[in-house]
Amino acid sequence: GVDALEKALQINPARTRLRRALAEYYLSTDQIEKSLEQLKEAIQKSPADLGLRGQLIRELSMLKRYDDIKQQAALLEKDFATNADGLAAAGSTYLQLQQTQAAKIALEKALKLDANNISALLGSSVLALQNNDWDGARKFADQVVELDPNNIRAFKLLAGISYKTQSLDAYVNRLTEMSAKLINAWGPEITLSDYYLAKGDTDQALKHCKEALARSGFKGYPRDAASNLYLQIARKELRADRLTEARSALMEGLQA
Asked: How many C-beta atoms lie closer than 10 Å to residue 46's C-beta?
């Protein structure tokens, strides 16, 4: 319990794992100030722990403490000056604050250190999107997909770019080709499923979702997407007063 955690930290204040657990407890009980205090203490003990920094920024975001978030972004950029992951995190934080020039500098530094850093590439794609640079946004997202053909965020960025540039049909064709070529990757299939679900074609959505599920080993994002899809199908059947079919969809969703 929380008392045991607090006592353990009194004995050994340097145990950052316990501080993180205590911070999460305080957050879960709406004691966010106490949670922030524990995170700051933990970061002092483990300044190289990017996870702690990210958790602190997320909690500051919940409180809309933008000046504090800006300070944390600057600290990330300073403390991780030779670390691509840290610089990418700084860039993403600047993007959150809509400080595009600072984001650009941090992300470029990250990519100079590691041209294949996925977080920096994703951040650069988002930055290009914010500047209406569709070609630049597509280039960075494409790089991510080449490195990780299951990166859902990159596929969603490419879908958004294709929508903005009225090239969705070409994107669907590309996804189909990718799926045929990368037979073990579930990313293209689940993206096709999401696309057809958005169009209201649940039959096609289910077809691609089942393929993604099989390729993923029935875990991760495809499993979550399948649960949502079966729920949508059940609602559709209920609206049509097909209770048996709705019940069947719900049961399949529970088993996905």
From this structure: 18
- The interaxial angle of helices 152-164 and 187-199, nearest 10 deg, is 50
Query: Is residue 207 classed exposed, middle or buried when 0-12, 13-18 and 19+ CB atoms within 10 A define those classes?
Result: middle
Interhelix angle 152-164/118-130, rounded to 10 degrees, is 20
With 0-12 CB in 10 A as exposed, 13-18 as middle and 19+ as buried, what is 75? middle
CB 145 within 8 A of CB 177: no
In this predicted model, what pLDDT tens digit does every residue of 172-213 receive, in sequence order? 999 999 999 999 999 999 999 999 999 999 999 999 999 999
The residue among 144, 148, 141 whose CA lies nearest residue 126 is 141
Please list the alpha-helical segments (H only) found in 97-133.
100-113, 118-130
Q: Does residue 126 contact residue 95 with C-beta atoms inside 8 Å?
A: yes
Structure tokens at 232: 């949508």
pTM over 0.90: no
